[in-house]
Specification:
With 230 residues, this protein is an alpha+beta fold. It has one domain. It contains 3 helices and 15 strands. The chain has helices spanning 4-32, 137-143, 175-188, and strands spanning 57-68, 72-76, 82-86, 92-95, 98-100, 110-118, 121-129, 146-147, 159-160, 171-172, 193-199, 205-210, 212-214, 217-220, 226-229. The strands form 2 sheets. It has a 5-stranded mixed barrel. A two-stranded antiparallel ribbon has the order 8-13. Mean pLDDT is 82; it is low at 1-52.
Length: 230
């Protein structure tokens, strides 16, 4: 028969041994990487990039006016993406190269919208009716823009020159630089919605596009000439 004293000693040794095994297992898991919780860069992780979205950012879209109300209108892009455009007292209007008013926005007109993008809603800072260039479906198809399709995988393709960068790096820009980069990207690859513009370490701009399956990034140089897309 094992004595109470010996039994207590054995039980204590078992506790110590279990603790040592647990510590070794934990150390091994940490040395091999995080094995629990959110994966780095995945859900629950910020990703660490300075261009990580924290809210609506400067961007825009181009397309054909579908409907007009007192303080907003809707647009269909070259790929059929529906966008709501909200107008404000500070919104400015242009028709061609001349100043205009909100009355210039009518059903069927082609418009370029620049402003603050939140998903497929844009609060317009500027609306250009009959903008220079072709933002239509023929240009979009020729450029290889792939329309968004629910459940379809994103297209993996690279065209032109892609700057050496790490996705998630760079600084979100606003103002004239964001507007010019947005306009250049939409003219080259019409059909999507620009929801942010990021300046990279080399001075180039990465224009991030949603509402299409390709491209997701259009790269523009410091003179706002399109370099490539992926």
């Amino acid at each position: 028969m094992v004595s109470r004293k010996l039994a207590g000693s054995l039980a204590g040794s078992a506790v110590v041994l279990a603790a040592l095994i647990g510590a070794c297992t934990s150390a091994q898991s940490n040395s091999n990487g995080n094995t629990s919780g959110a994966a780095p860069g995945g859900p629950g992780s910020s990703g660490g990039g300075s261009n990580a979205r924290s809210g609506p950012e400067p961007g825009g879209t181009a397309g054909t006016v579908d409907s007009v109300s007192a303080s907003s209108f809707t647009v269909s892009t070259a790929t059929g993406q529906k966008v709501t455009v909200n107008e404000a007292s500070s919104t400015t209007y242009q028709q061609g190269t001349s100043s205009a008013s909100a009355s210039a926005i009518t059903t069927g007109e082609t418009v370029l919208v620049l402003g603050t993008t939140s998903s497929t809603t844009i609060t317009a800072t500027q609306v250009i009716v009959q903008p220079t260039g072709d933002y239509g479906s023929a240009t979009s198809a020729t450029a290889g823009v792939v329309p968004f399709s629910q459940g379809a995988p994103s297209t993996s393709k690279q065209v032109g020159q892609i700057p050496n960068y790490t996705e998630g790096s760079g600084t979100i820009v606003s103002g004239t630089a964001a507007d010019q980069a947005t306009e250049a990207a939409l003219l080259a690859y019409p059909g999507g919605v620009v929801d942010r513009v990021v300046q990279l370490s080399g001075g180039e701009y990465e224009v991030h596009t949603i509402g299409v399956n390709w491209p997701h990034h259009v790269f523009v140089d410091q003179n706002f000439a399109v370099l490539g897309a992926n």
